[in-house]
């Protein structure tokens, strides 16, 4: 996978996870935890992992 696809795919997977947990009637704390873990994962991707992927 190249960087362009991951730059689109990583946030898209995060958005889909938020929508799915909301649609399936999850409690507010569950959606909050998914948001927190997803935000940390996106931050980690853009801060550390993205540098090692060829453009």
From TrEMBL:
TM helices/strands, residue ranges: 7-25, 31-49
Keywords for the protein's UniProt record, in alphabetical order: Membrane, Transmembrane, Transmembrane helix
Protein name: Putative membrane protein
Organism of this sequence: Streptosporangium sandarakinum
């Amino acid at each position: 996978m190249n960087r362009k696809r991951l730059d689109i795919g990583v946030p898209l997977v995060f958005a889909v996870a938020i929508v799915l947990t909301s649609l399936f009637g999850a409690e507010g704390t569950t959606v909050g935890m998914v948001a927190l873990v997803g935000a940390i994962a996106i931050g980690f991707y853009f801060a550390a992992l993205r540098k090692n992927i060829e453009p």
